[in-house]
Each structure stands twice: as C-alpha cells, then as structure tokens.
Amino acid sequence: MEETLKVINTMVEKGIIRGYAIGGGMAAAYYGEPTLTYDLDLFVYFTTEDDDLRLLEPVYKYLIDLGYEAVDEGIMIEGIMVQFLPPYNALIKEALDNAVTVMYNGTETNVISLEHLLAIMVQTGRPKDKLRLSNLLEMMKDPDSNANPDYNELDKILADHDLKKNWDDFIEEK
Amino acid sequence: MERIARAKLAHRVKLANLPFPEKVSIIAELQKIDISLAKAAGRKPKRAWKI
Fold first, then answer.
1. A54 and A78 part of one domain
2. Residue of B17, B20, B22, B44 best to disrupt the A interface, most CBs of A under 10 A
3. Domain residues of chain B, as ranges?
4. ipTM, 2 decimals?
C-alpha cells in the first residue's frame, strides 16, 4: 500500500493528476473499523476537463507505460486495485478541496475529512455506504474513538448540500 | 446485556483506533477469507491485494 501511494504521489509531482484524496471504503476504514473492500477509491483532480473517458487517458497511459495492469474498472498498482474517480458533484469537489493530509508509515497521503465522508455516504445512499455509515455512527458514540466528527462542520456540509433530511431519515431508520 | 454491548463497542473502537497500515493488513486478511468463501460457494473470487 505504501508503494502504491508513492506511485500516486509521483503522479501528482509529474503533473499526471493535479491532486487526489482517498474516499470510499478505505476512507471509512481510516476513520473506523477495517471492513472488506477490494478497491482503493481515489477522487482525483485530472489535468483536463474533457469528458470522463478522455480524463483517464493520461492516467492510464502513464501507469500502463510503467507496466501496471488495467483490470476491470481500475488499475492494479503495486498489488492494490486503484480506481480513479472524477469529482462528479459539488460535494465531492468540496471533499477533495478539504482533504486531510495523513501519514501512511513514512509516506504522505490525503484522505477526505470524516465530515465529508459522512455526507457523501448519506448522499449516495447505497446499501454498502449505509452499512459503513452505521458502523461509523457506532464508533462516534465512544469519545475515545478516532471517529469524532466536528458536528458544526458536519451540519454545515449537510445544509450546504441539501442533505439534512437524508441524514435525519437515516438516523431515524437506524 | 448492556455490559456485553459496551464490551463489543470497546473492542470495535480498539480496531478503529489501530494505525492505518495495520487496518490495511486486516483488510487484506478479510479479502483472503472472502475469496475462500467465494471459491467454496463456486463464485468467481475477486483479486486479493498483494501488500
């Protein structure tokens, strides 16, 4: 994983991508319990703003030239399946802009903030996101847990992206 | 019952507070279990990470 992150950081240094942040199941694992996932989802600022497929061209070309293998919807980098995802809405863009820098052993990386992660999970509403959200909410009950969001910030994000009702509905369902 | 629930949560919080690399190692172990289950059930397994 550390080698994977080094490759991705080099892509930023070389201008193949402009920036990235870990999202999805790996971000959920960063803040909460590790749960099964097969993908390292990266929200990425690409170098062009063309349509989706062309966005990925320089990324895939760079990585395939280095000998990495494209598999299904991702690319296997140093043993880890990585998916490069464009910031497809305003919430994801904001999450990318506000990602937190963390260390993975000796390597810097970026993870979307816990508050944005919670909001994205409510927005997507997929069963797996609901399950991860439910797990994180359990962790948030314990003040010793790493999963301690800034509730004012979370409220602001939910309000800004019109997600308060979704959040309240989820809490009620739970 | 409440004591068991508290103990369970404490255990989960311990997992949640592990360093990031240790969590990734656990995810890789979970993948191995999932792949074994998939094979046993005759499903096509996904590719495990090599970390």
1. yes
2. B20
3. 19-51
4. 0.87
Residues A120 and A89 in one domain: no
A101 touches chain B (CB under 8 A): no
pTM value?
0.91
Q: Indicate the SS3 state at residue A41.
A: strand
CB contact under 8 A, A32 and B9: no
- Which residues does B contribute to its contact with A (CB < 8 Å)? 9-10, 12-13, 15-18, 20-21, 23-24, 26-27, 30-31, 34, 46-47, 49-51
Q: Which two tokens stand for residue A87?
A: 């910031």
Expressed as residue numbers, the domain containing A104 is: 2-111
pLDDT tens for A14-59 read 999 999 999 999 999 999 999 899 999 999 998 876 666 678 889 9
| Cα separation, A119 vs A133, whole angstroms | 9
CA distance A52 to A21: 18
